[in-house]
Specification:
This protein is mostly helical. The chain is 41% helix and 4% strand. The strands form two sheets. It has a two-stranded antiparallel ribbon with strand order 1-2. Helix 1 runs antiparallel to helix 4 and helix 2 packs antiparallel against helix 3. The longest helix has 25 residues. The relative contact order is 0.14.
Length: 209
Amino acid sequence: MTDDSREPSISTGADDHDSPDEYEEPDEGYPDDTEPHPGEYEQDEVAEPPHPVNWNLLTAEQAETEWLELNRWVHWLRRTYGLAASVVPPFWHHHPELVWELSALHLHWLCAYDPEQNGSAPHGWHRDFAEARERLREWTATCGTRLDRDRPTRQTVWPGEDAAPPVEDVVIENREEEFVQFVLDDVADRQDEEDAFYAGYDPDTGEVR
């Protein structure tokens, strides 16, 4: 179990390459000479072989690691390929459809560039990347997130369901600071769920009260 008193200190991965345990909350601004350059992302930062990431089942600790790793890679991806916000918007982390798509693309990239992979694998990744860009562009246009503001993805209400809350744009002035808080909140929510589960767990019987 994670100590509830622990204050996670994380960075977005946009401008550094430290290990997940060494992240610190970013300053408000970043000097130009600290900006990462295309190609700086290091695959060996992943401590274990590539594996599918099921965001629905991650523990609090796992989620923190995966958020930071994916965020670092997305920064590398958008800068390396000059991707517009219409393909990879700043607030992709607020939209599950974009998270799952980018997470799958990241895993595919890790596998394609694994040292044990065959030499044609990177070409296959770029072919699939072209298809993924079209899906990302469609997801982004549908959810309506923009360069400097965000709003929840509109949900279709089926007969018998409660009416969906109104969808309003929220202006976000500092993306990196907002991402840090988003991760902290997500990790805290997952930790609360874990604590509630284990509070009712009987190790003798294996049952959950």
